[in-house]
Design brief:
By secondary structure, the protein is mostly helical. It has a domain of about 70 residues. Helix content is about 50%, strand content about 0%. The longest helix is centred in the middle third of the chain and has 15 residues. The relative contact order is 0.09.
Length: about 130
């Protein structure tokens, strides 16, 4: 099984959350393939235009992603998966944030610090000597 292919078992759980295709108009893109393309995009961090051809037209993938985002489909999917995990007692609400990935913006790095911490430290050292 390829790394970017959603298994049938996973799709059976997540697939029904996505809206049904319109009955009229252009034939819709395969929902599962579009979701796989979106997952590929976020896993690689590549621009939308660099979406591999095996997923179809990049613009179709992006438009579906954008439409689903505005419709709240991704939030619904998260709620759906969380409710299933909670029902199966597989959900653990422990979160850990590693401060090494939290960076200050380059323009904020040179701002003066007004915490007073360094001034107090200098006063302590000047009294001790």
């Amino acid at each position: 099984m390829s790394r970017d292919v959603i298994s049938d078992e996973v799709w059976d759980v997540r697939g029904p959350v996505f809206p049904a295709a319109a009955a009229t108009g252009r034939p819709p893109a395969d929902r599962r393939l579009v979701v796989e393309a979106i997952a590929w995009h976020y896993r690689t961090g590549a621009p939308w235009r660099d979406t591999p051809e095996r997923f179809g037209n990049w613009n179709t993938v992006y438009k579906n992603f954008d439409r689903w985002s505005k419709a709240g489909v991704w939030a619904d999917l998260l709620e759906h998966v969380q409710s299933l995990a909670l029902a199966n007692e597989d959900l653990d609400w422990v979160a850990s944030i590693d401060s090494t990935i939290v960076r200050v913006h380059q323009h904020g790095a040179t701002l003066p610090r007004t915490t007073g911490g360094s001034n107090e430290l200098q006063e302590i050292w000047s009294r001790a000597s």
